[in-house]
Amino acid sequence: MLDKKSEFIKTKLSGKIFLFIACLLVIALSVVLPAGHVFAQDFNKKVLAEIAGEKITVGEFIQVFRKNNNQGEEPDQNSVKEYLDLYVNFRLKVNEARAIGLDTVKAFQQELNGYRAQLAKPYMVDEEATERLIREAWERLKEDLRASHILVRADKTAAPADTMEAFKKALQIRERLLKGENFSDVAVEVSEDQSARDRDAAGRIFPGNKGDLGFFTAFDMIYPFENAAYALKKNDISKPVRTDFGYHIIQLTDRKPAMGKVLAAHILLLFPPNATDQDTAHLQQKSLEIYNQLISGASFDELAATFSDDRSTADKGGVLQWFGTNRMIPDFIEQIFMLEKPGDFTKPFQTQFG
After folding, report:
1. What's residue 64's pLDDT?
2. What is the 8-class DSSP label of residue 265?
3. Environment class of residue 257 by beta-carbon count within 10 Å: exposed (0-12), middle (13-18) or buried (19+)?
4. Do 300 and 265 form a contact (C-beta atoms < 8 A)?
5. Could you report the per-residue pLDDT of 109-152, keeping only the tens digit for each?
6. CA 241 to CA 251: how far, in whole Å?
7. I need a surface site. Which of 21, 95, 273, 346 has the fewest CB within 10 A?
């Protein structure tokens, strides 16, 4: 191949001919001519070189040179000669690769297709659709939703018959709800989301959520679920919504202006395992006593350090990490919504934990 290259350079691009072509290319690269200029059109069509029967025009070389060199610098004779030599090498290698069938090798084709897909990706972006999705997300982030759901599982790879069976089951459940059955009761009975029902963990019973997913905003849920929830009015019940998990029946139970991220402190009095009514009454009375001390001006930090059963935060004045609506249980978030300014504190309230 080197012999072919040497012969090519001697016969086609040697001596005065090469120098003359290089000078013309410098002029062409330095002067911007109107697209319709006769001289520009004729010069660009001139054959600069012929490699294995393939003609390379001046216009083609100029386009490649400009693409791969600094646009802000004036080209000189040496840079054009150097790049022309590199370009000759490149075209000779391409021709030799074709001659030996390198372009038909599977590994090469896979690599080439990968580059093609990578280069095409930016041109495949629908800017209008992207802008629409950005605006949609911006509007949704202004609200926090609270919703419950009932799940009928159907894997995303499930057979059509199984998918249809799950869809029919979801329709039947929705019909029960529309006839007036309580959403929470039906969720406990039939939902295939196990969090709906009470569960035993390490000998302690944790109450189920009865389908209540709590508060969330844009990006907190998978997109089809989010779409369906934001389209509902308060207390509406959706048609079956398909996601990768199956079919969801969604009831929107609340929507509020977005809370954003908040920093809060708490004092937690935990229920003992298998708490009795007497235990609950005792903790209620104790929480009221702590609340009365706060009203009288006692330090929240000191009360948290003394009384809170959340030992991970008690020594820090009860301060939790920054959180959004989807990071805490709904009963806790409902109380946060009622606080108006830094320094406000809630009355004692009960959750499943204490």
Report:
1. 78
2. B
3. exposed
4. yes
5. 888 888 888 877 777 777 888 899 999 999 999 999 999 999 99
6. 12
7. 273
53-92 in b/e form (b: 16+ CB < 10 A) is eeebebbbbbeebeeeeeeeeebeeebbbebbeebbeebb
Q: Rounded CA gap, 204 and 234, in Å?
A: 34
- End-to-end distance of the chain based on CA atoms, in angstroms? 83
Cα distances from 269 to residues 171, 206, 279, 349, in angstroms, run 43, 16, 11, 11
* DSSP type of residue 39: H
Q: DSSP letter at 121?
A: G
| Per-residue model confidence as pLDDT tens digits over 86-100 | 878 888 888 888 888
Residue matched to tokens 């609270």: 146
Continuous H helices in the chain: 2-12, 15-30, 38-45, 58-68, 77-99, 106-120, 127-140, 160-178, 183-190, 223-230, 277-295, 300-307, 311-314, 330-337
CA-CA distances (angstroms) from residue 344 to 266, 300, 316, 319? 12, 11, 18, 14
Say what the pLDDT of residue 57 is.
82
In whole angstroms, what is the distance from residue 196 CA to residue 201 CA?
A: 15
Structure tokens at 151: 């799940």
Q: How far apart (Å, rounded) are the C-alpha atoms in residues 65 and 67?
A: 5
In the predicted model, what is the mean pLDDT of the chain? 85
Q: Residue count of the chain, please give it.
A: 354
pLDDT(255) > 70: yes
